[in-house]
Amino acid sequence: PVQISSAVNLKMNRKYLWYLAIPLFLFLLTYSFIPELLSASSARLVNYDTEFLPEAPFNIELTSVPQQLIAGESYDLQVNVDGKALPSELFIFIKDESDPESQFIDYSLNQEHPNNFSYTLSDVKEDFSFYVGNPDARSESYKIEVLKRPFIKNFRAHITYPKYTGLGSETLEDNVGDFKVVKGSTVRWELLPNTEVENAWLVAGDKKAFQSSSEEG
Fold first, then answer.
1. Residue 102 to residues 59, 94, 98, Cα–Cα distance (Å)
2. I need a surface site. Which of 29, 89, 171, 180 has the fewest CB within 10 A?
3. Which residues partner with 77 through β-bridges?
4. Which helix (H) or strand (E) covers residue 140, if one does?
5. Which of helix, strand or coil describes residue 203?
6. Alpha-carbon distance 31 to 46, whole Å?
């Protein structure tokens, strides 16, 4: 084994130390006149998993972006821009989150005023992500959850008659309309929704509401 101190004569390299003054001088000069350049670069290195958008000639502001939408509903997206150079056109880029292989597809926004654009999202069905922009600038990305609208696919009415009638119990045909029962009978409705439902109520008249009990199957 050879020690570095005996193999390398550090004293011979002292004459090259003045070369370090060049990058040190450039660093101090940059820090004195453009400190945000160094701080911005450091922030990008530290927050490596954060999306940083490039500086743009105009700003894009989206008003009232919902986190959730109900399937089948429409939503009017309003976009405001401000800056020295206003864009003549903007696009909305939409990606279907239910398909992992899907790509962002762009659609033109309607320009209502020089600094205002709009777009109507119609008949949404699946979760999606979107952002607004053009080649010069873009907004941050938004992910929207689309909730399935519940509805009753099928229902049955089970009737248990009073003992004194001797009628026992009866199950009516599926999706039956109006029907009459003997006073004192017990009616149990079995509902089959199109999707998972956490709570449901059966409303009789204007005042009475009965919460249901859920069963799988």
1. 28, 10, 8
2. 180
3. 119
4. none
5. strand
6. 19
Task: List, in sequence order, every residue forming a beta bridge with 76; answer none if it has no partner.
Answer: 120
Residue linked to tokens 């699946």 = 126
| Structure-derived torsion over alpha carbons of residues 186, 187, 188, 189, reported in degrees to the nearest 10 | -170
Burial class (CB in 10 A: 0-12, 13-18, 19+), 179: exposed
Which structure tokens are listed for 34? 């453009």
- Round to whole Å and give the CA distance between 104 and 129: 8
Residues in the chain: 217
Reported confidence tier of residue 94, pLDDT bands at 50, 70, 90:
very high
12: its two tokens: 């011979």
CB 163 within 8 A of CB 88: no
Q: In 129-144, which positions are buried (b, 16+ CB within 10 angstroms) versus exposed (e)?
A: ebbbbbeebbbeeeeb
What is the pLDDT confidence band of residue 52, given thresholds at 50, 70 and 90? low
Contact at 8 Å (CB) between 195 and 176? no
Alpha helical stretches, state H, 3-104: 4-7, 21-33, 35-46
pTM, two decimal places: 0.55
